[in-house]
Design a protein that fits this description.
Blueprint lengths: L12 H17 L6 H4 L10 H20 L9 H5 L17 H20 L5 H27 L24 E4 L2 E5 L16 E5 L2 E4 L5 H9 L11 H10 L7 E4 L2 E6 L2 E4 L11 H10 L7 H9 L59 E7 L23 E4 L15 E4 L8 E2 L5
Parallel strand pairs: 8-11
Antiparallel strand pairs: 1-4, 2-3, 5-6, 6-7, 8-9, 9-10
Helix pairs in contact: 1-5, 1-6, 3-5, 3-6
């Protein structure tokens, strides 16, 4: 632990213990309705066997909290040989002799109970609480992944006991650009903002030129116009890598779309539904996003531009204030009226929904609904400080593109303005859309 990790200790022990128990419950519920065959789907490069994944997430918490911080002995023989993602090749995970569903449930319960006992025990320290919170957010990232894995595999949507889903807000379109002034902007997390991951460390000055950013993400209707204008067949709209990807993938439209008698349809988990014209286009990769932007005569924003539009405030002289918000709307915490997070709608809402979450410049849904692709490659910030888990960021530097903002299946306790996500530019299974810059 480095000296700055003490600053992440911003939740009480009782709150953190409840997070541990709730995260384990969510992990279990996301697979509890699936049969044994569904828990071991066919080998795909973009998914894990679901039975393996819930074991990996639980092993991670045991390894870092129980075995690492509390020096306990392993609970499962050969656990590292089963669930250490850094040591086990992806395709090998299908051939492992994994514990049964019942044994896995006992393992999850045992790890959860022991972690909570440790938080309330005599050896509870800031280091223990930091590492425990780190593993809770590891759960959070994997439960989002399990959600879109169900979409990938055409499984039905999950039923979550602690989430009361409501109908998605229908608020129509939102057009036009917000004008973002130029100036010096501090990109990244401040040292006093609470828990952040290593790839957000630390705030450093960057120069941002004035630019215009769409107030809302690209909608399904807008993207359909690109498809119908031959966007996937027009070579001039794609860079070399993007065109090669399109040819290899035989992509003619978004992965979960199909033409129907009454127009385009999209697959929502296991059901085909008509396009929702005013909801953001989802499940598009970085190559598709950049091709659309060229077709529209625009571009993707850089990561610095995206964060400036989300968190900066204008000053009286027409520049940017030195102060930066923690969230687009200010420093107040997330509420259900400000962002579509935590599976609230079990999907996206219209791009004009959630006006309470607007940034200082009038950009909407810069937190929640969908992750948004940026033009930037994922790299370390100056002064990068590695977290307890090296593989969280370091192996991905230089090979992935940055996404920002969080999605409808992102946990509110994880989402904040400087959080960075990162995937290879060909991934279109993730909960990702985009907005364009002028």
């Amino acid at each position: 632990m480095n000296q700055d990790e003490d600053r992440s200790d911003t939740v009480t022990t009782d709150e953190l213990a409840e997070w541990v128990r709730e995260a384990a419950q969510r992990l279990t519920e996301l697979v509890s309705d699936l049969d044994d065959a569904q828990l071991r789907p066919p080998v795909l490069p973009i998914v894990n066997p679901l039975l393996w994944e819930i074991g990996h997430v639980t092993w991670f918490q045991e390894a870092f909290v129980l075995r690492g911080a509390l020096r306990e002995l392993p609970l499962v023989e050969r656990a590292d040989a089963l669930w250490d993602s850094a040591a086990i090749p992806h395709d090998t995970r299908w051939s492992l002799h994994l514990p049964s569903r019942e044994e896995m449930h006992r393992y999850i319960t045992d790890v959860t109970d022991r972690v909570i006992d440790g938080l309330w025990g005599p050896w509870s320290t800031r280091q223990l609480r930091y590492v425990t919170r780190y593993t809770v957010h590891h759960h959070d990232m994997h439960t989002e992944a399990l959600t879109y894995t169900r979409q990938t595999l055409a499984y039905p949507p999950p039923t979550l006991s602690t989430i009361e889903t409501v109908d998605a807000e229908q608020a129509g379109p939102l057009t036009g650009d917000a004008d973002i002034p130029g100036g010096t902007f501090l990109l990244g997390a401040d040292r006093d903002t609470g828990f952040v991951h290593d790839n957000e460390k630390w705030a450093h000055p960057v120069q941002v030129e004035p630019f215009g950013l769409a107030r809302a993400p690209v909608t399904q209707a807008e993207y359909a116009a690109f498809v119908e204008d031959g966007g996937y067949r027009r070579r001039e709209l794609w860079d070399v890598d993007g065109w090669e990807w399109r040819r290899h993938a035989a992509a003619e439209h978004p992965v979960y779309w199909q033409p129907g008698r009454a127009g385009w349809q999209r697959r929502d988990f296991d059901q085909w539904v008509p396009l929702e014209p005013d909801r953001p286009v989802s499940h598009v990769c970085w190559h598709e996003a950049t091709a659309y932007a060229r077709w529209a005569g625009r571009r993707l924003p850089t990561e610095a531009e995206w964060e400036a539009a989300a968190l900066a405030e204008p000053d009286a002289a027409g520049g940017l204030k030195p102060h930066k918000r923690r969230f687009p709307w200010g420093d107040e915490p997330v509420t259900t009226g400000r962002a579509n997070l935590d599976w609230r709608h079990m999907g996206t809402a219209d791009v004009a929904a959630y006006p309470e979450g607007d940034s200082a410049f009038g950009c909407r849904q810069l937190l929640g609904n969908l992750w948004e692709w940026t033009a930037s490659t994922f790299t370390a910030y100056p002064g990068f400080e590695q977290d307890v888990y090296r593989d969280n960021s370091v192996p991905s530097f230089g090979s992935r593109k940055v996404l920002r903002g969080g999605a409808w299946a992102t946990r509110a306790r994880l989402a904040h303005g400087t959080i960075r996500n990162y995937f290879t530019p060909d991934r279109r299974d993730v909960l990702a859309g985009f907005r364009t810059a002028a």
